[in-house]
Amino acid sequence: MSKTTEFSATPELLSQLYEYSIVKDYEAGDVILDENARIRSIPIVTKGSIKVLRTEEDGREILLYYIKAGESCVMSFLGGLHGETSKVKAEVEEDAEILFLPTEKVTALIKTHPEWLDYIFKLYHKRFEELLEMVNEVTFKKVDERLLSLLHKKSELNDSKIIHTTHEQLANELGTARVVVSRLLKSLEEDGKLKLGRNKIELL
Fold this sequence. Notes:
The protein has 204 residues and is of the alpha+beta class. The protein contains seven helices and eight strands, in the order H-E-E-E-E-H-E-H-H-H-E-H-H-E-E. It has helices at residues 11-20, 74-81, 103-112, 114-140, 143-158, 167-174, 178-190, and strands at 22-26, 31-33, 41-55, 61-68, 89-102, 162-164, 194-197, 200-203. The strands form two sheets. Strands 1, 2, 3, 4 and 5 form a five-stranded antiparallel sheet that branches. It has a three-stranded antiparallel sheet with strand order 6-8-7. Helix 3 (103-112) crosses helix 4 (114-140), helix 5 crosses helix 7 and helix 6 crosses helix 7. The longest helix has 27 residues, at 114-140. 25% of the residues are buried.
């Protein structure tokens, strides 16, 4: 696993993770987990990143959080351990390599490797803070502030000032209309905060 891993794993734990898991490669835009799907394994990202979204009844989506290299999805942990279906959708943000650890192996590793349990608790804490931040933004911030915040998150995630995305994708992640995002992006460009290109945005 890459050096960006969030937990301090012993060689024995890393060896068992790879031994128990199936490794798969994905391209940006691929959906690795859909809502209402049975959770049979826990995804652990070793390269790239994933975005976790929630879909409303009218088809609109809203971004909950990102999963970076070295991290996993706590929603999958919880649902998988209780035999539940997924409450979220997980989509690849940038080309990724993912380990899929069978749910029955999760509890086995907890019993033999204390640092694995510590890793899970740290992820829960991080995701809880991110969800609180998301609720705060939706409740108290204007859409233009949320849009700029999302762009900065994507920039940090990809370590680049140039973000490859579409207005429709941004609208989906913010849970708003494409026409609203297009108008706000034009306004932000006029304010000198970014530069618009074809399916890309450059932060200034």
